Write a sequence for this structure.
């Protein structure tokens, strides 16, 4: 456990030191649970987005993408259930004034118990918690906390308030005048708008726009990548739980009654997507939800083994027709699809219906953390006469921020000119980096720390026989190859 915490700290420091992630507005001491992506982070994040987008849209004939606005008519959130139900139960410690999400408080207690060998108690407490949460039994949850003498980490006391609900949506004012600028449809009309807590609703309200203009036939999907905002009570664990984050979501519209089959299909597809990056399957597991969200008839998480243990990375939800039905009711606009395919059971066309939906929803930042934490390794390379070590990011080549570093051995003798030729050959195809400062060993180490899968070194022999040394990040092996093969080798690995 202590080692895992140290490893997590080392990853956070590495992200900062090498320009992946900075605390937001750091010169003002930061803003809790808000982070900025630096020059390397932005590339890795974009590559993860592209990998998801390609697999969800380009490689599917029946899924298209959209990019909906963050602001939506406030009635959207009434219809979706978020105004009334998007709450987390929380509890305050009266002595420290610290606020906890009830499930996190109990989970932390269970983790401590299992770390000290009390596996049985940990298991029982978690089972009781799941059952009580499923019934929204706050008195029972409070009793569970009291019976187990769960203490506040700050004050060390068990002096707790009652458990209350806390809505996680951020709100702001819309428009600059006193008079409302929001059309009063479905009971709107005030100036208050929300920052979307999920991207999914932008897809639901556009369901018919896309279906009609794209002439989509059920089953079909709509994918979206975008920012979401949640006023998390306990925002911690670096980019795992942020107040501003990005989601990559896909809503798949299907015939009512076919949801079980499509739910299983997307569970399997999404797991395949994760494994496609070469991360071992032991790092992932499914976790079925006991307490279902207000919109779901089945739901599970794909959990990943983060440095702090197995946690949710992606959710797969069978959302029924809950969202479309409610939007139809609140907006008074039909959200139905006309299906003229024959139902073999009745011999008639399926006709008009509100589609059911399977959702796959993954946090981009959580995926970033999964990828970088799996890739990070500290290696001891000491020999009997020389201590040595390296920090390396063994990122999948297609996600690495820089694919190729081109390194002339010296700054003179025409070597930079040859290096520049390689750069101009490769630059249009993938991200390259040119570096002539420092010893070659130091340059290799820096590229290892950034996760660059290939380095090529141009030396005096290059001038004679047009070969360069290629060095592979993971094995650190080096070999001589013809200069004109560089582009091909890198392209084969990064596509
Ligand atoms: P959790 O239980 O961890 O709060 P959730 O079940 O509320 O997550 P969903 O509403 O299913 O999450 O959101 C889908 C995905 O969005 C999650 O699997 C996660 O990857 C990501 N996500 C949700 N909340 C956050 C957050 N605060 N910061 C970063 N990513 C998040």
């Amino acid at each position: 456990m202590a080692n895992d915490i140290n490893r997590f700290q080392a990853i956070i420091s590495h992200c900062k030191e090498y320009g992946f992630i900075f605390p937001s507005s750091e010169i003002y001491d930061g803003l809790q649970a808000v982070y900025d992506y630096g020059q390397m982070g932005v590339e890795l994040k974009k590559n993860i987005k592209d990998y998801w987008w390609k697999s969800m849209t380009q490689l599917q004939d029946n899924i298209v993408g959209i990019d909906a606005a963050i602001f939506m008519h406030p009635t959207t959130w009434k219809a979706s259930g978020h105004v009334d139900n998007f709450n987390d139960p929380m509890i305050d410690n009266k002595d420290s004034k610290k606020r906890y999400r009830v499930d996190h408080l109990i989970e932390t207690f269970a983790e401590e118990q299992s770390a000290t060998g009390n596996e049985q108690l940990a298991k029982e407490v978690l089972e009781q918690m799941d059952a009580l949460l499923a019934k929204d039994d706050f008195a029972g949850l409070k009793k569970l906390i009291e019976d187990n003498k769960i203490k506040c980490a700050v004050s060390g006391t068990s002096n707790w308030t009652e458990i209350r609900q806390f809505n996680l949506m951020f709100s702001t004012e819309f428009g600059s005048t006193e008079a409302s600028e929001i059309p009063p449809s479905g009971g709107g009309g005030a100036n208050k708008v929300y920052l979307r807590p999920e991207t999914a609703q932008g897809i639901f309200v556009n369901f018919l726009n896309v279906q009609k203009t794209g002439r989509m036939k059920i089953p079909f999907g709509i994918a979206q990548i975008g920012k979401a905002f949640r006023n998390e009570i306990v925002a911690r664990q670096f980019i795992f739980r942020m107040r501003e984050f990005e989601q990559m979501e896909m809503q798949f519209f299907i015939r009512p009654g076919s949801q079980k089959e499509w739910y299983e299909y997307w569970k399997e597809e999404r797991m395949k997507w994760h494994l496609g990056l070469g991360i071992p399957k032991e790092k992932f597991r499914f976790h079925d939800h006991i307490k279902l969200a207000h919109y779901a008839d089945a739901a599970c998480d794909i959990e990943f083994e983060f440095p702090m243990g197995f946690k949710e990375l992606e959710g797969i939800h069978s959302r029924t027709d809950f969202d479309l039905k409610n939007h139809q009711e609140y907006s008074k606009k039909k959200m139905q699809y006309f299906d003229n395919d024959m139902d073999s059971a009745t011999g008639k066309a399926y006709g008009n219906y509100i589609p059911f939906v399977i959702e796959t929803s993954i946090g981009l930042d959580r995926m970033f953390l999964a990828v970088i934490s799996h890739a990070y390794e500290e290696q001891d390379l000491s020999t009997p006469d020389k201590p040595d070590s390296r920090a390396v990011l063994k990122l999948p080549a297609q996600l690495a921020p820089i694919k190729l570093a081109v390194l002339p051995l010296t700054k003179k003798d025409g070597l930079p000119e040859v290096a520049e030729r390689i750069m101009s050959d490769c630059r249009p195809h993938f991200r390259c980096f040119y570096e002539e400062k420092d010893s070659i060993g130091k340059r290799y180490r820096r590229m290892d720390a950034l996760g660059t899968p290939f380095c090529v070194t141009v030396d005096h022999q290059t001038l004679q026989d047009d070969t360069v040394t290629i060095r592979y990040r993971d094995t650190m092996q080096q070999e001589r190859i013809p200069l004109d093969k560089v582009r091909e080798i890198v392209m084969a690995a990064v596509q």
About this structure: DSSP finds 16 helices and 23 strands in the chain.
